[in-house]
């Protein structure tokens, strides 16, 4: 069997093995997400030579939610550099849930850019330009990772905007510590829009593969970020990307990763591949149940653990 056939075969087997899992529920605190099809399940892998492998519902668009966070962090690092970004948001695992009141006692900084508090600050750090508002800049940047223009699911955006008071409260709390360089309401609106950007599992695997490939999109050949920024983002994904499940994830899967409450999950094998799963039912940490199961199994079967 060729290497390509082996990958296709492995994804197909994982899909069959986990499609029947019935645990977890789609997120309900953003009402529009609760309407997702609980049976939807897709897997995708993009190799460093730009080959795209997929199975199941890998072409179904869904919203990025927290999977947007590492890519917006990449933009902030590209524009401002690690030291300046680090003045506003730290890079320590919080061990807490994604929506925790994550503020370091000493400085008031959010613990890291993967929890909501840190992601809102990161989004607020992105300056608009004379030609482009901050959100348009973020959207175009996300599209360069995916290798195509992405758009916003306006219904999901409106649903989160109507119910997202906890995130607004986090933004006000951070501003009270003097650490939000922007109007809290506007920062959170931009953050909600970034969370509502729509992509497929194949797009997400391409985005993860771009980080794994030193910042160069392996499908389009475009340099999206420097190798240094790609490495910085992968480091924070490894330690913080799965929130209060980050330790368990690094132990069992051993790859930098990021989950999202819409049921997306990405993982990156540096210099090897980008992976993505989509399946809306979530566990208690906000991670796709089937996605988690499939990636644990894949990592074990192919020895993908980095350690
Ligand atoms: O801010 C929120 O709550 C959502 N827009 C994103 C949270 C999320 O995806 C957490 N990840 N598992």
From TrEMBL:
Alphabetical keyword list: Acetylation, Hydrolase
Listed GO MF terms: glutaminase activity
Biological process terms in GO annotation: glutamate biosynthetic process; L-glutamine catabolic process
Similarity comment: family membership: Belongs to the glutaminase family.
Binding sites annotated in the UniProt record for substrate: 66, 116, 160, 167, 191, 243, 261
Listed EC numbers: 3.5.1.2
Catalytic activity line of the entry: L-glutamine + H2O = L-glutamate + NH4(+)
Subunit structure: Homotetramer.
Enzyme class: hydrolase
The protein's name in its UniProt record: Glutaminase
């Amino acid at each position: 069997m060729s290497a390509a056939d082996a990958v296709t075969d492995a994804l197909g087997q994982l899909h069959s093995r986990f499609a029947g899992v019935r645990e977890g529920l789609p997120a309900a605190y953003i009402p529009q997400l609760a309407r997702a099809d609980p049976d939807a399940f897709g897997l995708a892998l993009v190799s460093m030579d730009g080959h795209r492998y997929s199975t199941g519902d890998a072409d179904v668009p869904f919203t990025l939610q927290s999977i947007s966070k590492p890519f917006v962090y990449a933009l902030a690092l590209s524009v401002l550099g690690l030291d300046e970004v680090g003045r506003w948001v730290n890079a320590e695992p919080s061990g807490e849930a994604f929506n925790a009141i994550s503020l370091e006692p000493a400085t008031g900084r959010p613990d890291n850019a993967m929890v909501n508090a840190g992601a809102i600050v990161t989004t607020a750090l992105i300056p608009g330009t004379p030609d482009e508002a901050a959100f348009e800049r973020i959207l175009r940047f996300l599209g360069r990772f995916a290798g195509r223009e992405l758009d916003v699911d306006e219904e999901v955006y409106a649903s989160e905007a109507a119910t997202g008071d906890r995130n607004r409260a986090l933004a006000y709390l951070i501003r009270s510590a003097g650490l939000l360089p922007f109007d809290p309401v506007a920062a959170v609106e931009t953050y909600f829009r970034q969370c509502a950007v729509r992509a497929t599992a194949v797009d997400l695997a391409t985005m993860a593969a771009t980080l794994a490939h030193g910042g160069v999109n392996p499908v389009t050949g475009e340099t999206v970020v420097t190798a240094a920024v790609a490495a910085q983002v992968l480091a924070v994904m490894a330690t913080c990307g799965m929130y209060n499940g980050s330790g368990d994830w690094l132990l069992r899967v051993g790859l930098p990763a990021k989950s999202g409450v819409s049921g997306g999950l990405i993982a990156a094998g540096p210099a090897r591949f980008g992976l993505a799963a989509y399946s809306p039912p979530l566990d208690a940490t906000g991670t796709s149940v089937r996605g988690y199961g499939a990636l644990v199994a894949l990592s074990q079967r192919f020895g993908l653990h980095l350690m």
